[in-house]
Design a protein that fits this description.
The structure is a homodimer of 220-residue chains. With 220 residues, the first copy, chain A, is α+β, with helices and mostly antiparallel strands. Chain A is 40% helix and 26% strand. Chain B binds a DNA duplex (30 and 30 nucleotides) through helix 6.
Chain lengths: 220, 220
Amino acid sequence: MSQLDAVIRQSRRVKRGEYLFRAGDPFRALFAVRTGFFKNCVSSHDGREQVTGFHMSGDLMGLDGISSNTHGCDAQALEDSDVCELPFARLELLGRDIPSLQRHFFRLMSREIVRDQSVMLLLGNMKAEERLAAFLLNLSQRLSARGFAANDFVLRMSREEIGSFLGLKLETVSRTLSKFQANGWISVDHKHIRLLQPEHLKQLVSGCAGGFADDHSAHA
Amino acid sequence: MSQLDAVIRQSRRVKRGEYLFRAGDPFRALFAVRTGFFKNCVSSHDGREQVTGFHMSGDLMGLDGISSNTHGCDAQALEDSDVCELPFARLELLGRDIPSLQRHFFRLMSREIVRDQSVMLLLGNMKAEERLAAFLLNLSQRLSARGFAANDFVLRMSREEIGSFLGLKLETVSRTLSKFQANGWISVDHKHIRLLQPEHLKQLVSGCAGGFADDHSAHA
DNA sequence: GATTGTTTTTGATACGAATCAACCGCCCCT
DNA sequence: AGGGGCGGTTGATTCGTATCAAAAACAATC
């Protein structure tokens, strides 16, 4: 695994609001988030945006660019961030010599496909409350997997971005958060969220979360 | 590419209604559709089903199984079909020796991720009419890419399966098809669809189809 | 520290799709 | 020929979320 260091060209800094890459940019490298927080976004011709995912430390971005040598989505930093650039050509070469790397790589791509399927299930079958509960639990789990508090965290994204990801309008996100708070399940202080009764959230998604609440995000 | 024949263990027949694999089955191989038609399906604990895709000749299925050595979705034949089984272990080995194969493989997985992103855009942003128009156009394009008529085809799936894929109920699918027919844009005779004025359908999705109408399906 | 713009909350209303329900056409069946 | 089941269409109604609107909280700027 130390050979992996060889492909890391450099650590690149991206300030809040800046784009690491944009849809249509030539694809040369994958990016692993070292610190910070990103959103990925596809947009239609008429300007409608769909957030396809949020990415934090350890997550890999850019896999969708391999197919066409062109990035298929935007990657925008939601806070000052730090990423590793992994030139894909070098990665491909190394994969041939290091079976375990090739294998790891296939798994990463497959995991992304599985994650996308969970999101489809969410968007296709779940109601607003279920979506938001699944979202909060997913975030909680990913944060705790990285050593942060599971039940006390700060949202890096706006209500509108959450809504875009979940297929809801920002007002609905706001209302639903308020409702959860009124129920005593969470506390909402602007972007500061506390899960007071996560078991109630789990109950909401129990049955309908096809694994999305689990951490299927891509680790580098 | 003739070396590829080496990994094709056998051609396997799957009758209409039968499952090629089911979620939870141990993952050993990918499957390329030779003839026939399949749906892929993830389901939640409480029985809700989400069709994640439809696959026809040349498409590859099972990529989501790599990550966990377990298939993540069902693959059910919607008509009598014929698939090639591609043992994954052998494919991995060959990939090391044949760079073009490895490269091709990465592209295939990436293409699946891009396709999934288009579906997210569809499920998250589009209205019933737009979804159905995008679906018909996508089907049309994939069929014509395989040498079939683009504007005259037979649906292999039920209204319910279309609805599941598009995040709609079967009644809505039926109503929307009827509306398209009333407009003179298509003709509907049970499962036999004719696109009479595809330009009107394109107009409906123009602006909001983030590439889904194009053929981003996985070719073997 | 006032000002401007952005994000969030909350309310009233409208609209789209789900739901509930009835009916039809078709295939299979014995 | 007469059931029975399945898939599909269509209608009436309900429900959930979007939309429109206004105000409050906050952040950025000078």
